[in-house]
Fold:
Amino acid sequence: MTQVSDARARPDESEELAKRRYLESTGRRRFVRFWGDFVRRRPLGTAGAVLILIMLLAAAFADVVAPYDPTAINFVDLLKPPAPDHLLGTDNFGRDVFSRVIFGSRTALLVGFTASSVGCTLGLVLGVLGAYLGGRADQVIQRLMDVLLSFPLIVIAIAVVAALGTGEDKIANVIAAITVPIIPRVARVVRSSALSVVQMPYIEAARSVGTDAVRIMLWHVAPNVFAPYLIMLTAFLGQAILLEASLSFLGLGVFEPTPSWGLMLRGAGMQFLERAPWLAIAPGVAISMAVFGFNLFGDSLRDALDPRLRTA
Amino acid sequence: MRRYIVGRLLLMIPTLIGVAILTFVIMRAVPGDIVELRYAGSNVPQNVIDQERHLLGLDKPLWAQFTDWMTSISRLDLGQSLWTGHSVIEEVQGRMPLSIELALLATLFAVVLAIPLGVVAAVKQDTWIDYAIRVFSIGGLAMPSFWIGIMMVLITLTFWGWAPPVVFTPLFDDPVANLAGLILPAIAVGYRYSAVSMRMTRSTVLEVLREDYVRTARAKGLRETLVVVRHALRNALLPVVTVVSLEFAFLIGGLVVTEQVFNLNGIGKLLVDAVAHRDYTLVQALVLLLASVFVLVNFVVDMVYVVLDPRIRYS
Amino acid sequence: MAVGERPVAGGTLTFIVNAEPPSYDGHRETTFALLHPIAPHYSLLYKFDPNELTKVIPDVAAEMPQASADKMTITVKLRQDVKFHDGTPMTSEDVKATYDKIIFPDAAKGVTSPRAGAYAVVSAVNAPDKYTIEFKLKYPSASFQTNLASPWNFIYSAAKLKTDPRWYEKNIMGTGPFTFDGNTKGQDWKGKKNPDYFGKDKDGNKLPYLDAYKALIITDANAGVTAIRSKQAMIEFRGFTPSQRDDLSRALPNDLAIQEAPWICVNYVVPNSQKKPFDDPRVRRALSLAVDRWAGGEALSRTTIVKDVGGLMRPKGPFAQSDTELVKIAGFGKDGKANKEAAKALLAAAGVPNLSFKFLNRNITTPYEPVAVFLINEWKQVGITATHDVKETSPYQADLRAGNFEVALDFNCDFLDEPDLQLAKFWSASKAGKGLNFAYYDDTKLDGMIDAQSRETDPAKRLQAVAAIEKYAMDEMAYQYPVLWWYRIIPYLSAVRGWKIGSNHYTNQDLATVWLAKK
Structure:
């Protein structure tokens, strides 16, 4: 917040100076200090970060960590309970559940990261555009976002998935379905943050000297709404993973034989709930841990970056 | 003020028209139609399929279908479900009470859980109590609520041989049977939504606790609990009310998966079935209905804000 | 059911239906979700004997149909003691109006009849007197008389149809054992005993035994199991999976009965012969050869509702080939390894050793998903990469109909073991098989064979003719072929008596003879 009051104190300061100040304040030293503080002062956030790290490692080294091919069918060993050779048991095709959970982290991360980053970035662009352009353009964007917001989420998801199709090779469609509802939620928050920045004198100044609009938005407005953007990015990462699970549960998400946590819950997980509860418990715990990690981390990140910011 | 209210109400119209157009376009863009589904797996000749399409008006040009729909909407006629042939009103009527009651119960549970926890977490900020409460509450956000539901049914069934009634009983017919059916889903959903309200309560109470007038109250030597309850909590409630009401609007049509797991005959399930059936009229009517509820609740929340908080003035 | 047990009257049967019925008109719809809750309100002309499910017996008919000497006129005498639920007596006018609606639907008035084609042989339906009905045929037909027992052909009131030919889409008024007692949309359907029902059991007691029934609409399979387990429902008439059966019998060791039977439902692998390389019979045969059905049936029957290996007719049914004959057909042999080698050789010969394609399937778990996972894994072992392309039922069906796929998993269910029904998908795609044959081939030789078996009146010769069709269609040309036949498993509370499992989930649902044992 310091450069804001600076700018107010010296309204005639040039664009260059404002930019330099901004870059200084987010330099590498500050970065290191920030994370040092984060780990020391926010044990929950650190725990979240550790969970995320575990998940990233599992996904990256799935081939090494997983003892079996996650799609290898073995009809001899159907529905075996957890044992040393199958740590989390086997499913109704004799596939190793542990290996499927490990490989499932790839699906979850792929869906989570892509949906969340694309959704949040589009939201950022629309929010900043609206705030900067104002007037009729802003009105149009806002109404569009209102429409998307008041639209039942599940209809959007079902429609996107159904229109584009699902299946092993169609994971991009599931991601698209999850991305769409994220956009208006981010755009709304970003717009309100950006509005306060847009009215800053140094932006006015930049405009008056004829700086390119795209340049202003990119270099001045966007960095100032970066904190809410980052916070929402982590929050929606978890939500995207949950949404994938829900869609797969409804039969609209990822499909066999792709290892996916939501899918594991849907078919076999439900059908063999009593006979083989590990089929439902393992992916359920995996989903919960992943989302838990992202939420803990995101929560603490919010507190660290901007304690006054409220994003539900 | 009056101008603001009228303006806000007028702004709803383009939003709802947008929703209507979007629903129409989306549903027609989605491949497959109701006739394909109606006769899926049956050896039905093409001419019967064509006749059915004609009967349901699906062979009309798109613009004609759209103007037909818009005309009937303007006459406040939501039309008939293509699947059952019954009026949309009839389809919605029976399911609305369940959805509203479940949303109310879930919200109630969420608030009852969230506000005390949020206040305690704020007062004990950065102690292990705060951490424990936050972990508990984020846990609710992290677990898929349908998974919680399934686990709850599994547990009650395994240990007590009890399962929630599969048929919904209206509240006034038999309150006990009614609550027995809704209590587990309300907890499963409420736990999840308590997380957001808890977080909101905690951060607003934290903020309020730093305000001058609270410090003054403390300095005057008022008891801590009294300070929290009388000053901090009261002022913190406003944003919590916002979050809660917006969630409520969402809960009415949004509990698709939970309704599925508990076999609850609510609006969410109706909507999903309608989309799966490609029951265009029903989907269009439901989406419009849910969007209206959402927009209206939004509006009311803003109005409540104005009334409750004299600092806010809309221009 | 213990032999000689005396039925007791009274009680309410609660059962599960997995889907909500669309309109209430049985003549218009094709889903079992309509039959289960609604069939008890209606009578048919003939029905399947609840005690001997392959035998046709009169329902509102007084006796079995009489054929004229030239077999071109079928005469049916009607019972004279049948009354509609509103008290009006049922006469030949009602039966004529019913069959006219089914066979000659008035499209101008918005009446559709998906099964009209099954009665193409009929030229007119006459009512020569108050209790006689006459079907005039264009040519003699063997299957027509059985078709009069179609579970869909509810007898409607001529008076109601006259006021509005679509009256029955939203209203119920039949002559069946139960009258309509209200429903809650999306939740339940209730019927209560029709005191004026004409049916009597063999001891002369009035039917139905039950006071009432209540159908609960439960779409989620797990919720269905829970409902039976907590005794909120007694039975579900379509079927459960083996693991659901086991869960229930473990939870209710003393209260559960189980009936099982091979089902006239099957999944087909359908290669689209319009798409390369599936125009090559070698490739199609390789796809079938790669699948070890015997091992698959053994494994999958432990977890899902498929079990028996069979050709185009239901295994163990009246038209099924013996296993010794069946194993001679490509892909049905028991030496899985040799078959896979043969499949590889065929693929290599056809120039597609590393074949890959999209495999269209619908997004229903049981049994489509496990069957597809099994197939994909079998194909993988001969070097085929099949990508699972899963769609909702409606777009899946649209893709089938448009030929917009490479290989699909199709399915078929019928209410009767009858080659005419089970071979319907095998007619040439541009002729009689239009909209049914999704393999999209034209084959006049096969058309001739199907037609000939239909006209064959000697049962032994017909059996041979059907076997020849199986050999030709599944092996020589390998157009399309079954994976595994479904297996119907009904676990239910043992208090439910008087209901016998049949080969399908369409017939035997009027509940007239079902009763509840008292503890």
